[in-house]
Amino acid sequence: MDRADPEGAIAAAAVACSNWGRWGEDDVLGTVNYLDEAKRREAAALVRQGVSFSLSQRFEMGGPQKGWRRRTNPVHTMLDTGADAVLGHQGFPHGFGGADDVIAMPLQCSTQWDGLGHIFDHGKAWNGRAAEQVVTSDGDRVTGIEHMAAAVTGRGVLLDAGRHLGTDGELPDGFAITTEHLLAVIAAEDVVVGRGDIVLVRTGQLTRARRDGWGDYAGGAAPGLSFTTAQWLHDSEIAAIATDTWGFEVRPNEFEGAFQPLHQVAIPHIGLLIGEMWDLDALAEHCAADGVYEFLLTAAPIPVTGAVGSPVNPIAVK
């Protein structure tokens, strides 16, 4: 990998890893197509204990965002409160009262999916479509996140890279997780990863942010996947992948002057569904205790019509 030639590396990976046309010219699901009925039946059979884990961070005003790319933390406002009810301001009969609230936030300010309209490569969106025709001021008119609302339920696999490769369960910022690293973790956990799986990679960065403060968690240096994993992401035929970091791939990026080069291949060319800022810590502790790293995972995006990403509260059930 020539670290001084991001353009060449991205172009080569785009050709080698392209899924354009694989599911037809009208496809809107990308690699989620691998997650079929048989895979969901397999996933349902993994539930043995009935214990469940939310893999979402909380959506709150004290969250990780600090304005980069105009992303803010959620603004939560009450429309009606208990005081309104007690003071009789609501106008309901026979003592009835209630509370209502509203929230305003970027759709990718906390635990979320990157939709297929989120990233382009040289003006091309997923499946080779012209970016300006896919995402307009009206939103993603073709591959909006709403198309995946019923699809993202299947077999989840946790790859705890922080535990198996790091120190005290954490990888340092800037640690590039290679294909060899992923295979080593897979071997250590004695688990199989393949077609239709939803892979969760824990680096331990969120653990560190909880302990030390948010700092540059949202946009700064981080452990993450190496650009060199693009071929594995393609060849393994996984349905989706998510990490406990803001940007999924290693930061700083591995090329001089590059910005998120793995995104530039994974989303528009592989058609890969990518999740970020997932909270994998409690699940990781349970998996380490019982030695089972596979589970039923449901992670439906909120079907906001035309959105290029969505908040999600993923639930893992073992």
TrEMBL record:
Transmembrane segments: none annotated. Pfam families: Cyclase. InterPro entries: KFase/CYL, KFase_sf. This is Putative cyclase. It comes from the Bacteria. One of its GO terms (biological process) is L-tryptophan catabolic process to kynurenine. GO terms for molecular function: arylformamidase activity.
